[in-house]
Amino acid sequence: MKKIDAHLHLVRSLSGFNGKGRLNPLGGGRAVWDNGTFVKLIPDGWGDDDFLAESALKVMDENSVDKAVLLQGSLYGFQNYYTYRSVKRYPDRFIGAFSFDPFVGESITAVRRHVEDLGFRAVKMEISQGGGLGGYHIPVRLDMDSRLGRFFHYVADYPGFVVTVDYGDCSQLSYQPEAIANLARLYPQLDFVVCHLSFPNADHLDRLENVLRQWEPYPNISTEISAIQDIEGERDFPFPRCQKDVALAKRILGPERIFWGTDSPWSSTFNSYHDLATWLEATDIFTESELEDVFYNNAERIYFKPRNVAAAVDTEDPARLD
C-alpha cells in the first residue's frame, strides 16, 4: 500500500528554541535545553546531531513509505532552507512547509521570501505553549491577532495554500480548536490541517468529540494522527487508546479528512518507525480503500497539489545543491 508520511522533520543542524531556552546538541541524538532538561531526539543510527534527507529516505525506503511532508517546529529549530533544498533535490519524494515567527519585525518579509522566491505553498504554525511560539511569546488567538491576520490575507491570494497548525494540548493557553473553525469559515480557499488529532485523550473522548463537531461543517479542515502514541503514552502495539481516538475521528469527519504521519525523528525514539508505519493496518478501523485514503490519497490531495509541487520545484535556487 502506498504511503505518505505527512509529518516528518529533517534536521540540518539542531537549533531548537522554546520556553525551555535554547537546545544544545550533545551527539548521539541527544540534546539538553538551557533549563537542564535532557532529551533524546534522534534514534540511534539516524544521525548524531542531524537527520538529513538521505537518512530520511533510507528509513522511508526500509518501511515502504513513498513520500513525506517536511514540517518545521521550534523543537529542532526552523529548518526552512534545508527543507527547500531537499525538496529541490528530491521532488518526487518530498514536499515542504516553512515556518516563521509572526511577532518579529520582518515577519511578512520572511513570508514573502518563502512563498514568492522559494515557492512554498504550505506553512507550519507551531504555536503551542509547551514546545512552540507560545512558550516564548504571549499566546494569541490565530483568528484575532492583526499580525496573523496580515499573514492570512496574504496567503489568501494562493488558493489551495495549506496552513498546518500545532496548538498543543488543552492544558495550554495556545489550545484553540475553535479558531481553526473560524479561520476555515473566513478563508474557504485555504486548507487547514491540525496536527496530532488535537492532542487526544482516550479517557476524555467527549472533549475530542466537541472539537471534531466544531470542524465538521468545514470540509477545508483535516487532521493528521502523527505522534498520538506519544501523547497517549502508549508503547503497546497496535496502540488501543489511539484506536479509540481515531475511530471517533472517523465517525465524525470521515476517512477522507484524516491522514497518517509519524512526527519522526522524535516519535521514533518512543516507538519504532516500523510500528508507527504499520499500526493502522493491524486494526479494523478502516476498510482497505479507506486505508488508501488515510495513508496516501488525502495527503496527496492536500499537500501535493500540482500547482504547489510546480511552485516548489521550479523556483530558482541561488545556492548550490551539492
TrEMBL record:
One of its GO terms (molecular function) is hydrolase activity. Residues 4-304 form the Amidohydrolase-related domain. The keyword Hydrolase applies. Pfam families: Amidohydro_2. It comes from the Bacteria. SUPFAM superfamilies: Metallo-dependent hydrolases (SSF51556). Keywords: Hydrolase, Lyase. InterPro entries: ACMSD, Amidohydro-rel, Metal_Hydrolase. PANTHER family: 2-AMINO-3-CARBOXYLMUCONATE-6-SEMIALDEHYDE DECARBOXYLASE. This is Amidohydrolase family superfamily. It comes from Bifidobacterium bohemicum DSM 22767.
